[in-house]
Amino acid sequence: MKKSLKCTKLGLTLSVLLASGVMANSGFANSVERENEFSLDPMIITAQRLERKDLDTPAMTSIITAEDLKNTGASSVFAALEKVTGLSSTAYGAGGEDYGAMLSRANLRGLDKGTLVLINGNPVNLMNYNSMLNVIPVDAVEKIEVVKGSNTVLYGAEAMGGVINIITKKSPQNTGGSVGFQYGSYSKGFEIGAYGEGLNVFYKKENRAKLDPANKLFDPKKTYTIKDKSNNESLFFNYDINDKLSFNYAYNDAKNNYRTAKANGTTTKNNFYYRTLQNAGLTYHDQNNFKSSLTYNKYKIRASGDASTIVDASSIYFDNQKAWKLRNNKDVLVGGISLSRESYEKGDKPTFDRDSAALYTSYTYNISDKFSTVLGLRGHFVKSNSYDDAQNIFLPQIQTLYKINETSAWFTNIGKSFEMPSTTSPYMYGKVSTFIKLKPQEGWNYEMGWKRITDTESLKIAVFRMDIKNKFKWVTEDTLRPDGNSKTYVQINNDKFKNSGLEVEYTKKINDVWQANFGASISDPKSQEKNKAWIQDDARLQFTAGITYRKDKLTANLQVMFLGERQTATNSYYGKHRIPNKVDLNMTFGYELTPKDNVEFGVYNLLDRANPTNTGEYRSLPRNYILSYTRSF
């Protein structure tokens, strides 16, 4: 208890110090070549499917630029997102690694598996998981837009807590490339990039060291997990076929070895997992505001040793969108149609397919120069199959924006959202599959906020509430029928979920050299099983802060993240307890040796804490460093 209290005080103390300008993130604009342009009011595409300035967007937003990724030394998109205000994560290894079919994921506003990830505006979630986060190498990312609150009207299922849009770099007019090498205490690797004549190519390979232990050993008579050496490869390329048509492809291959061992280190099981992720997208976008896209996503996992997992999941999406400017360009009408098929196959069992179609529209009406409203509606239709009943769901949304002056605005955002059961559900049912028909989880999101954005600072404040019914829950089969298996988990509708909270983001450009920011999220995510007591679902407190120094050839960054009042841990060997608080302090330096040579050095988890990354208390890496060198040509 004393230790937990000390950790809480430490996290709050660091956050207060950082908020006063002692530490924070960067916010420099970015391109393939380093620029000095700076903007705290960037253009955002995700929130309304059209470009709008942040100040003109009626939603709480967070933007991570390529320069932010570089300055903070983020090893993956997943690692970068962990610092976003209001976002929590579940991971089984460094940078969002999976453990077999146990997938890492990022969640906005406390709702597990309720956040939709997009790549260049196209959905990439599979099996209700957003594990495609790491399919794109960090060096290929132009920026990441995080839009909180319901976005189901424009993007469909799974956008209940919000949307994360990973926007990749476009090829510049000039031709060039880079070669980089990294060496660290837990990883080493290299990366190659090339661009020119409409083509961008990035390749990265990383070898990771053994982590022992990978999780906490509670019962000395039982086992714990050791993560042995692993490797990870990523490939991404984007090709602009012409000024209207582009194609992108991403591939990620991970080979992991997890062992379970007794307290004395004796191995009891040796599990090998081979996982591949693929994403391909073809996009047509013309000057008449017509956009059409076709996206394919693929997840594949195989196992050997003592593991036997065999899973294939895929999805294909087709989306047509058109925008019209009305009333002398005062208003904008967006309309579109989406078609999708999700597929899942486990071992020798038959393939499960789910087909969906949707019509959506959004109308931005400017009542005056200061006040505007956005009315949205989506009709989402799911075809029945052997496991799902047909669904005809209508989702309304209304947003308002009041421009107080040129630098500040007040907004509201109210929308209905929903999510279909995971495509994995039929394969987990076992004996209950013949009589359980799952309903979508659905509910309402309410958000109200204020933004003030100038040339030197940005302050965003929002309060929100989420009310979800039919929340998905996994239980053992024997709790549903007498002859059920106590080791087989099945998905049911059994819960309600709600969350109310406050989010604050502040960024300050102190001068041409220093920039600081601070973020805070205070909320109460909880769920209820029938008429039982409400149970906490996620952390209640999150504080992030840091500082960036940039002058001449030197860049330095120091940042901290505190996660407190977390939910109850899975293991109760030592009694019911909360997951310990997470305090993550990182420091990075970058130096430009020549216009073409750069060196970077980062130290991560400076406090050397065994930070839990999920309810099973898997651990983040201990204190570690990475030294990297990049040569441009």
UniProtKB/TrEMBL annotation:
Its main subcellular localisation, reduced to a broad class, is membrane
PROSITE patterns for this protein = TONB_DEPENDENT_REC_3
Q: Where is the TonB-dependent receptor-like beta-barrel domain?
A: 173-606
Question: Cross-referenced InterPro entries, in alphabetical order?
Answer: Beta-barrel_TonB (IPR000531), Beta-barrel_TonB_sf (IPR036942), Plug_dom (IPR012910), Plug_dom_sf (IPR037066), TonB-dep_rcpt-like (IPR039426)
Q: According to the lineage, what is the superkingdom? A: Bacteria
Which Gene Ontology cellular component terms are annotated?
cell outer membrane
Q: Which GO terms describe its biological process?
A: siderophore transmembrane transport
- Keyword annotations from UniProtKB, A to Z: Cell outer membrane, Membrane, Receptor, Signal, TonB box, Transmembrane, Transmembrane beta strand, Transport
* Topological relation to the membrane, as annotated: Multi-pass membrane protein
TonB-dependent receptor plug domain location: 55-163
As given in the record, the signal peptide range reads 1-24
Identify a single GO molecular function assigned to this protein: siderophore uptake transmembrane transporter activity
Q: Where in the cell is it found?
A: Cell outer membrane
UniProt family annotation = Belongs to the TonB-dependent receptor family.
What is this protein identified as? TonB-dependent receptor
